[in-house]
Amino acid sequence: MTLLLSVRGMTRSFYGVQVLTGVDLDIVEGSITGLIGPNGAGKSTLFNVLSGLYPPDGGRVLLAGRDVTGARPAQLVKAGMVRSFQLARGFPKLSVFQHLILYGQAQPGEGLWAAITGSKVARQREEELSEEALAVARRLRLDHVIDNPITALSGGQKKLVEIGRALMAHPKLILLDEPMAGVNPTLTEEIAAHLLALNADGITICLIEHDMALIRRLCNPVIVMAEGRKLVEGGFDEVAENRDVQEAYLGRRH
Amino acid sequence: MLSYLLFTLTIGGIYAMLALSLNLIWGGVGMVNLGLAGFFAVGAYATAIVTGAGAPVIVGLGSALLAGVIVGLLVTYGTLRLRGDYLAIVTLGLAEVIRLIALNERWLTHGADGMSGIVAPLRSMVGSQAFNLGYLVFVSTVVILLWLLLRRLDHSPFGRAIKAVREDQELAAFAGKPVLRLKLQTFAVSAAVASLAGALYSHFQSYISPDHFQPLITIYIFLAVSAGGVGRPAGAVIGAYAVVAFLEGTRFVAELLPGVDPLQAAALREMLVGAALLLVLHLRPQGLLPERIQPARKT
User: Fold this and answer.
1) Can you tell me the distance from the alpha carbon of A240 to that of A212, in angstroms, rounded to the nearest whole number?
2) Which of B3, B68, B73, B294 is most solvent-facing, going by the fewest CB within 10 Å?
3) Does A138 touch chain B (CB under 8 A)?
4) What homologous superfamily does CATH list for A3-90+166-250?
5) Which ranges carry the ABC transporter domain (chain A) (predicted)?
6) Cα separation of the two ends of chain B
C-alpha cells in the first residue's frame, strides 16, 4: 500500500475566515477515494489548493513522494495530477477534439520556434496525440461530436469531455469535483462505469460527490470532511454509522 | 492616378501587417492591445534613427524588429496581472507615452518637426515611379510571407495552446500549459510584426512625425480585424485592405456631396468610418472570414 498523495496540516483562510483548518489525509495508490461532507466543509477549497489554484497558508503536500507544496497548476499536471471542475468548464470556441488533444503533454510543437519551423518531432507527437484523442473519444462515446464546439454539447457530454481530457494528460491521480452533478441516472451509470474502468487501468481517483448510493458503490475508503478538516475515514458503512459524521450532517442533538 | 493606386495598395499592405499583428495578439491569445500605434511608431522611429546614423536599411529593419520585441516584452511583464479592459487602458496609454516621447525628445526624434530624409532604398537610382512599384511588390511580398507564417502558427499546437489561453487562461494552466511563456512569446511576435510595419512605412514615406501615430490608426486596425474575422489571419489581411479601400472611397463620396466644404468632408469621413464599424458589428459580428474549427485528423 503506497501513498500517492499525502497532505499534512494544510490550512487556508479567505478574508479572515479559516476554510481549511488543518487537513491531514492520505490517498492510497490505486484507490477510488471518496470525499464527502456537508456544504461548507472545505472539500472544493481543498481541491483548489491541491490543484494549485490557491497556495496554502500552511502545511505540506507530497505527490508520489515529491514535495509539491505551493506548486503551480501546470507543474502539478506534469507531476501527474489533473482535476475537473464542479461546473463543467471548457474553452467555448474549441472543439471536443481540440479539448482532448490540448491536454496531451510533452508536445514540442507548443514551442514558438518548433511551431514556426514545423519540426518533425512535433509532427510525430501531434499524430500520436491525435490518435490517442480519437481513441479516448471513442471510449467515452464522444466520437460523433468530435468536431463540435464544446458549447454545443449537452451537460452530460461536457462531463464526459472533462474526464476525457483529464485522461489525455496520463495522470497518476485525477481529482474529480462532482463528476455526476446534474447528470441523468443513465449517464451517471455510464460515468460510474468509466471511472471503474479507468481505476482498473491503474489511475487513482479522488472524487467529491453527494450521491451516497454511488459513493457507497464506488469508493473505498471514504473520507468525511467537516469544518475544514478530516473528520473520519473508513469504509462507507463504517463512516455512515459514525456518530460524529451524523452530527456533522444533521446537527447536534441538544 | 497610377501612383495614387500604388500608394493606396502599399498603405493597404502596411495596414494588413498591423492587422496580422493585432489578430495574433487579440484573436490569438486574447490580449486587447490598444497600443498598436505605439508599436508601429517604435518600428518607424527605430529604423529612421539607425539608418539616419548611416546603417544600411536591412540593419534598420532588424533594429525595428528588436525594438518591437523589447517594448513588447516590457509591456507584457508590466501588465501580467491585468486582463481585458485594464490591459486595453494601459496599452492605450503606452501608445500615447511613445508618441509623447517622440514629440519631446528632440535630440533623438526631432520632436514635432519629425524625421525627414529617411532612406528610400534605390529611389535615387530607379526614379520615383519605379520605386513606388517596386516597393508595392516588396510590401505585398512581406504581407504574403507574414500571412503564411501566422497561418502556420495558427494551425500549430502553439496556436491551439494560445487559443486555449484566450478562452480561459486559468483552465489552460490546469491543462498544463505554460500561460506566461505563451503570452510573452505571442506578444513579442505581435509587437515585432507591428514594428516591422512601422519600419516599412518609414522607408516608404521618407518622413515621419508624431502626428503619423495617432490612436486613430489603432481604431482602424480594430475595424479591419473585426470586419475580416477575429482569430483568422486571412480575415485580418482582407479586412485591412477593405478598410483602406473604404477610407479612400469615402474621400470621393464626401467630395461628391454638394455644399460640403473640405473640413466638413473630413468630418463626414470619420463619421462614415464609425457607422461602418457599427454596421459590421451589427450585421456580421463574426466577420467576413470567421474563425474555423479545424476538423480532427481521422485515421
Assistant:
1) 10
2) B3
3) no
4) P-loop containing nucleotide triphosphate hydrolases (3.40.50.300)
5) 5-252
6) 55
Average pLDDT, chain B: 90
Q: Count contacts between A and B (CB, < 8 Å).
A: 107
Question: Residue B179 and residue B83: Cα distance in Å, rounded?
Answer: 13
Domain extent listing, chain A:
3-90+166-250
Please indicate whether, in this complex, the C-beta atoms of A74 and B297 are within 8 angstroms of each other. Answer: no
| CA B92 – CA B77 distance, rounded (Å) | 16
Give CA–CA dist B155/B158, Å, rounded.
8
Q: Is B292 on the interface with A (CB under 8 A)?
A: no
Question: Is pLDDT above 80 for A251?
Answer: no
Chain A residue closest in CA terms to B187:
A112
**In the predicted model, is pLDDT for residue A106 greater than 60?**
yes
* Distance, CA of A253 to CA of A241 (rounded, Å): 16
Q: ipTM value of the model?
A: 0.88
Average pLDDT of the residues in B145-172: 93
Whether residue B259 lies within 8 A of chain A, CB to CB, comes out as no
Calculate mean pLDDT across residues B227-235.
91
Beta carbons of B158 and A114 less than 8 Å apart: yes
Of A72, A74, A130, the CB nearest to B296: A130
pLDDT band at residue B79 under the 50/70/90 scheme: confident
Interface of A with B in 18-57 (CB under 8 A): 51-53
Question: Which of B283, B257, B258 is closest to B269 using CA atoms?
Answer: B257
pLDDT at A51 over 70: yes
With beta carbons less than 8 A apart as the criterion, state whether B158 and A115 touch.
yes
- Give pLDDT, residue A220: 86
Whether A134 contacts B298, CB under 8 Å: yes
Res B252: pLDDT: 82
- The mean pLDDT of B18-31, rounded to a whole number, is 94
**Interatomic CA distance for residues A110 and B157, integer angstroms:** 5
pLDDT at A254: 63
Task: Please judge whether B175 and A102 are an interchain contact, meaning their C-beta atoms are less than 8 angstroms apart.
Answer: yes
